[in-house]
Amino acid sequence: MSFLSSTGFDRVRVNAVLPLGDVVSLIAGGATLCIAGHEDVLRQLPAGQWIGGTTPYVMTAAGGAKLDHQHLFVTELGDLGETRVAHYGPDEMEKITANTPDGGFALTVIPAGSRCHERFAHDAANYPQAFLKPTFGWIAGHDLDQPGASAKVFAGSGEAWSGDRAAVLHVALPEDVLPHLEFVNLFEPDRVETIRFHQTTFAPARAMVNGAEVDFADYVRSRGLEHGQLPLVGDYSGAYVNASLQEVEAERVRLYAPVFPGVDYCFARPIGDYAEAFAERLAQVPSQGTLFSCNCILNYQFGDLAGKAIGGFGGPITFGEIAFQLHNQTLIEVRLV
Amino acid sequence: MSVPPFIHPCWKRLATGGLQELELRNPAAQMMAKRLDRDQRTELVDRVQEIHEFFTRYERTLGHELSQFDRL
After folding, report:
1. Can you give the residue ranges of every domain in chain A?
2. ipTM of the assembly?
3. Which of A126, A169, A221, A315 meets the CB 3.0–4.6 Å disulfide criterion with A293?
4. Residues of B in contact with A103 (CB under 8 A)
């Protein structure tokens, strides 16, 4: 078994690309895992204590890469405490938090474009105890070279897949261990104009820009930002939470995450070299106790991260990142402290 | 500073705008503060309880935030 990267809290855990056979062995040995890869490979996995989702894109210590059909990216959670695999439909997303043990957290994979994705994005921060029993994870996607493909998630078996349920690992933790979020968002507000929205939506048609009502699609075009590389950056009491542009249509702008009323947004300042910027930021983040990480497909694409290392980071490249709520174009790491 | 007891008046101040006046560095605290700021429907007692439970549970990671409580 080859360990392309690993992290440790009390012992070394697998956080690496592995051949299918090794992943089968880990599952058979009772390991608790979060797994990313192509759908046809995930479908071959046996029943066990694991969740997974489709994305063929990964970052390893050696750089960004696309998985083939014989390998998977595996994050082992190790012997933290009791874990339980579950899955929830769009009308029961609150159970992700409700069924997480006190003091624990939920690791969640949700299919991109599903009703679960939309519901979670709208409501997650309002679930009771959402900040006491955090939800981390990612949005599953598909191979961008196969435009017709759709995202799938898996809950405990290669046969238990869905395109519209959330796969969840409920994780209990020892009383003296805390899950801690490290948040690497390269984007900062450009402070050119402050943008506010009237309602929670993935597709805003109108906005207030410096207090004046505007057609938002026209506004984006007038700023020359319809290329979509720069996200909206929302100011959450000092934390920058992105909503990325999917498409600027004639009358509205489609986003990969919703915007919310009561949040001040700006467009982001451009970034030069993504790999260098990530490496610089990650050098300031403690690596001790890293349990789980993921980074956004838009950073991978726009930052041209294929083949480029970013400071030892390893994890799936995802179609949205989950840390209490949905994020875009953000690298998240969860550490145990 | 350790986490004040639930009966301390700081919790009510935090739940009625005081949280937004702190310099928050912890990402979870930042996102929770914005959620509470946007959500005016939650009863005061529930807001107080949520903030108190959060600071009690995550005390070890909230040193910077707790150090500002004496000015509330």
Report:
1. 6-183+275-336, 195-267
2. 0.95
3. A315
4. 57
